[in-house]
Amino acid sequence: MKIILTIITVLCICAASILYFSPKTETETTMSTWKTYTNTFYGFTLKYPRDMFVLGWPLDFEIHQPLPTENGYNNQIFITPSRTISDVDRDYMAIRFAEDVRNDTRSIQQHFKEDARFVTHNVEDIRTINGVDFIFIRTEQGDSIAYFKVNGYILSAEMDKNFPSQELFMEILDTFEVVPKTKQEIDSNVFPKGPPKIDGSI
Predict the structure, then answer these.
(1) Residues 66 and 42: beta-carbon distance below 8 Å
(2) Is the pLDDT of residue 22 over 70?
(3) Buried b (16+ CB within 10 A) or exposed e, 150-177
(4) pLDDT score of 193 more than 80
(5) What confidence tens digit (pLDDT) does each residue in 98-120 have?
(6) Which of 13, 30, 41, 99 is 20 to 30 A (C-alpha) from 114?
(7) Which tops the pLDDT comparison, 11 or 131?
(8) 139 near 123, Cβ under 8 Å?
(9) Rounded CA Rg of the chain
(10) CA distance 199 to 188
(11) Does residue 74 have a pLDDT over 70?
(12) What angle do CA 194, 95, 112 make, to 5 degrees?
């Protein structure tokens, strides 16, 4: 009996050693070198591959802050392997502003059940990533879009058809984290009255 217990113990130690000293997966190793994007206006961070770029659209979009939505400016960033906007060919993952809901405490699921803007979408999946609920839909064109609510805003993450892969899209979303803001900070958010200047830092 003692011999059997000894053999089992030795096998367990060997198995644990193999797991501990085995090399990290390619994804784990690669993600350790990823860059971090931070948006101080909405309050979130996410990581993206070192060989990709964060681009603002239009060209005068300062990438850490939103452009005003009330007067027609687009409000989005692209995460893409393309170095410049002119090179982008539907190979991006976009983060976009969807709705200012600072005075609405409903969950993202409730918005999708009750708001005219969202009820027409066919929900494909609901996932919780680092405490934030993401609602996934797929458009008729085959694009994958995830809606989420953070610090009083509904934002969307969209993968266009030439983005490297669905797997990479999800790996980037898995790094999403909220930077909590107080109610006073959220209430004091004011959309700029015109396009801010390019900052360029990440």
Answers:
(1) yes
(2) no
(3) bbbbbbbbbbbeebeeeebbbbbbebbb
(4) no
(5) 888 988 999 999 999 999 888 88
(6) 41
(7) 131
(8) no
(9) 21
(10) 22
(11) no
(12) 105
Distance separating alpha carbons of residues 89 and 91, to the nearest angstrom: 5
Would you say 15 and 21 are in contact if contact means Cβ atoms under 8 Å apart?
Answer: no
Q: What is the distance between the alpha carbons of residues 46 and 57, in angstroms, rounded to a whole number?
A: 18
Is residue 50 within 8 A of residue 34, CB to CB? The reply is yes
Query: Which structure tokens are listed for 96?
Result: 């976009």
Structure token pair of residue 21: 């000293």
What pLDDT is attached to residue 65? 53
Q: Which amino acid is at 200?
A: G
Angstrom distance (rounded) from CA 173 to CA 164: 14
pTM, to two decimals: 0.73
Tokens of 55: 């681009």
What separation in angstroms does the CA of 48 have from each of 15, 33, 122, 168? 33, 9, 28, 9
CB 108 within 8 A of CB 149: yes
